[in-house]
Specification:
single chain; about 375 residues; alpha/beta; TIM Barrel; 8-stranded parallel β-sheet; 11 strands
């Protein structure tokens, strides 16, 4: 990379790409004893709706698959859609990589699409089976391109013990990290019950990621999909993420687990400078309100910079404030194949939002930070 003068000379690595789960994924991959409760597609009018366990509604197709439409006909973007319209790169790894080539993206970290909202399935044993099936399918999806496709498995933390077992299992089948919900069903992540997870993730070198849209079902906690109240909760989803991040940074989790890495995806960057500044200020100005202090005069923001990462898409303001969160925490992501994706203009967009950023920082933000975190050569 020596002598590079513009973004076209650098590798783009997406820290937040997605698959679009094929409509028969869970029927084909789930433990047979759960097949009659497995997620399935129901055609409602002109669009496909996902259900599980009979009548639990959890996801629609539309905007999860409309990559590129924002640049062509943005007025055609819709939440509703059907599988006849799904981009092949969403479920076919060869087509996925072809689209990466079109977009000049060298590698990508792979999240689910429909899987993001399966956390609303109330039945814990069914959710575990749903996640195991998805994790197996994703490992198979990534297998043809191990250097370019790095999948993140899903963990059900209703039982932390079972979640830990699944963490080790998905590492063994080749996945690069694991997702945990933005709001777990029990407590916040500073609760001692999650200690086995932090210990195991650190031990096996698996980064953990919190992706937007992943609140675990709790009685009365999540309103029906598609309702006005559900929209309000969706807009404010970052509340749950911030609640847990603040809890972690005001705890001794990272003191005890210095090699643990936890990140957040698709919340952008701009929220972080304010939250970190406020955390440090309260920590300094109101010490009598806390019985807990970090060792060696370290601040909460220091732990964020050493132990956390931020996956963003198009946050121009956040880039201007990058020094407050740490250059090494930032990772660009395309969000392919979703409607808001930067595909197929990722280079153009990254070039714009990183305009004026020093060259060595561009290299890190555009790809190298992600490569280091997820073991991409």
């Amino acid at each position: 990379m020596e002598g590079a003068t513009n973004m076209s000379d650098y590798k783009l690595i997406s820290s937040d790409s997605h698959v679009m789960e094929p409509k028969n994924l869970w029927l084909d991959w789930i433990d047979p004893k759960y097949k009659d409760r497995a997620p399935y597609i129901k055609r409602e009018g002109d669009f496909d709706q996902w259900y599980a366990d009979g009548d639990v509604k959890f996801g629609v197709v539309g905007s999860n698959t409309q990559a590129g439409l924002r640049f062509e006909n943005p007025e055609d973007i819709t939440v509703e859609g059907n599988y006849e319209e799904v981009r092949k790169g969403g479920y076919d790894p060869h087509e996925h990589v072809r689209d990466m080539d079109v977009d000049s993206v060298s590698a990508g970290v792979i999240y689910p699409s429909m899987g993001l909202t399966t956390w609303v399935i109330p039945s814990s044993d069914l959710l575990t089976a749903v996640f195991e099936a998805y994790n197996n399918w994703l490992a198979d999806f990534c297998k043809p391109y191990p250097k370019r496709l790095r999948g993140l498995g899903m963990l059900n933390l209703d039982s932390v013990e079972d979640g830990v077992k699944e963490l080790y299992r998905i590492k063994d089948i080749g996945l690069a990290g694991a997702m945990i919900p933005q709001r777990p069903v029990f407590g916040r992540y500073d609760h001692p019950m999650y200690e086995p997870l932090w210990d195991s993730a650190e031990e096996c070198g698996m980064p953990l990621a919190i992706h937007i849209g992943t609140s675990r079902w709790i009685p009365g906690g999540i309103t029906p999909f598609g309702t006005d109240k559900g929209l309000v909760e969706h807009v404010n989803q970052e509340y749950h993420m911030k609640d847990n991040i603040v809890a972690l940074l005001y705890s001794d989790v990272f003191d005890r687990h210095p090699d643990l890495r936890i990140g957040v995806a698709e919340y952008e960057i701009s929220w972080a400078p304010y939250v970190l500044n406020r955390m440090d200020r309260i920590y300094n100005e109101r010490p009598t309100k806390f019985n807990f202090r970090h060792p060696d005069d370290r601040m909460p923001s220091d732990y964020f910079k050493s132990n956390m990462f931020l996956s963003f898409q198009e946050d121009d303001l956040g880039i201007q404030l990058r020094e407050y969160v740490g250059i090494n925490t930032l990772m660009w992501g395309s969000d392919y194949p979703h409607a808001e994706s930067t595909f197929p203009k990722s280079r153009e967009i990254v070039d714009r939002i990183l305009d004026g950023v020093p060259e060595e920082e561009k290299v890190l933000i555009a790809g190298e930070n992600c490569a280091k975190m997820f073991g991409i050569d």
